[in-house]
From TrEMBL:
The chain crosses the membrane at residues 22-40, 52-70, 90-112, 119-140, 146-165, 205-225, 237-255, 287-308, 314-331, 338-356, 376-398. It comes from Vibrio brasiliensis LMG 20546. This is Putative manganese transporter 11 TMS. It holds the Pfam family ArsP_2. Keywords: Membrane, Transmembrane, Transmembrane helix. It comes from the Bacteria.
Length: 401
């Protein structure tokens, strides 16, 4: 019997599609619960998850909240954004600065303006070179001094790359015709289900009440203050609390979107423009947190079971680490880039790999670029890999060899 005939006979709630594991993200919180339930992995899992929540997620949430509040304030005046269209060299500078903004919003703006003919090809190369995507939030929250330095370097490299491209190509290089763009704009956007919307709203409520106390506890922990002793709690209380909270956040994140393809796996969830800044910060924080957990848990479990010091092991791969960071950076989406930054924060990847990845990665901005101007996106990505190779290996030869 054909599948069409089966759907005609059976009611909609009794078809084979009901057994499709749409919310594959649930594998993450379920796996974490299994690791904590297992006595062998319980201690390392609780400590790792606690560190991920208090030392990473809390700072990322605070950084994102400040960012989204400021974004809402500055978005009311767009004169500065419109100014850079007057000169192709100014376009490159402003595009690099927009790309330097944490997240992918600035890069997406320049990408769409290139397609509409407002900026040239040099600008799109500059913005894709300077952007770090959501990995910037993680680096700024964990190592602010390195984060600002990497962002500043990205702006400088992005400007140089864009100006060089301006000397080689015309502004309309590989720009698609208007009729070619029609129909390319995201065909996979579907209305958010009521169940998913409730989970999204709960993310906002979760961080609304936790943002301030979590930030305070994270700051106290950064100053090496024993929270359990300070509050008179039994040993491991704050660790168990952090583990429980981070599992809760990943559970909420896992129910907000179905995994259908590569983009829905590695790209942040779409946020409504009208959403409250805390709501936007919550969605981004839980996305970043999920990928941080994957990196941290993989790092700790390999070291635990294999009795391997990954930092020492990767140190032996020195000449290959910048190339590995560069290659991962070529992958669209912020998820893989967050993995590289997490490994750098954990001490498993050198700064040369982080630099190569930061310059080569285009974050989520590459998805609309591929959808609207695929040829331009491909060439711009290849162009961004060249300075990434130079900077990554330049730093390696000067400071790490």
């Amino acid at each position: 019997m054909s599948s069409l005939r089966l759907h005609q006979i059976l009611p909609s709630w009794l078809t084979l599609s009901q057994f499709s594991p749409a919310y594959k993200r649930l594998l993450l919180p379920i796996s974490l619960l299994v690791l904590i339930a297992n006595p062998t992995t319980r201690l390392v899992s609780v400590n790792t998850l606690s560190d991920a929540f208090w030392a990473v997620s809390s700072y990322v949430a605070f950084t994102l909240a400040v960012y989204h509040y400021l974004s809402g304030f500055f978005s009311q005046e767009n004169k500065l954004v419109n100014l850079y269209q007057s000169s192709r060299n100014h376009q490159v500078l402003f595009a690099a600065l927009l790309g330097a903004l944490p997240g992918c919003g600035g890069a997406i703006i320049v990408t769409t303006q290139f397609v509409s003919g407002r900026v040239g090809f040099g600008a799109i190369v500059a913005v894709l070179t300077s952007t770090m995507g959501d990995a910037a939030f993680l680096l700024l929250a964990s190592k602010p001094d390195i984060g600002f330095a990497v962002i500043g370097l990205g702006v400088m490299v992005g400007c140089i790359s864009g100006w060089v491209v301006n000397e080689i190509h015309a502004d309309d290089f590989l720009r698609p015709q208007a009729e070619q763009v029609i129909g390319r704009v995201s065909q996979c956007q579907t209305p958010t289900k009521g169940f998913e919307q409730r989970a999204i709203n709960l993310q906002g409520v979760f961080w609304k009440w936790l943002l301030l106390p979590a930030t305070v506890i994270a700051l106290l922990g950064s100053f090496q203050i024993d929270i359990n002793q300070l509050l008179g709690w039994p040993e491991m209380t704050i660790e168990w609390l952090g583990a429980a909270l981070i599992i809760t956040s990943t559970l909420l994140w896992s129910l907000t979107k179905e995994i259908k393809d590569y983009e829905s796996t590695v790209a942040e969830d779409t946020k409504q423009v009208s959403s409250h800044p805390i709501q936007k910060a919550a969605q981004d924080t839980n996305f970043v947190t999920a990928w941080v957990i994957i990196a941290f848990m993989a790092f700790e479990l390999v070291a635990f079971f294999g009795q391997v010091d990954l930092a020492t092991t990767f140190a032996g791969w020195g000449p290959w680490m910048p190339l590995m960071g560069l290659i991962v950076g070529l992958l669209p989406g912020c998820g893989p880039q967050i993995l590289v930054t997490s490994l750098y924060i954990a001490g498993a990847a050198p700064l040369s790999a982080q630099l190569a990845n930061a310059i080569s990665n285009d974050g989520d901005a590459l998805f609309p670029a591929i959808a609207l101007a695929p040829k331009a996106a491909l060439v711009a990505t290849i162009y961004s890999a060249i300075p990434a190779f130079i900077v990554g290996y330049g730093y390696y030869l000067l400071f790490e060899i």
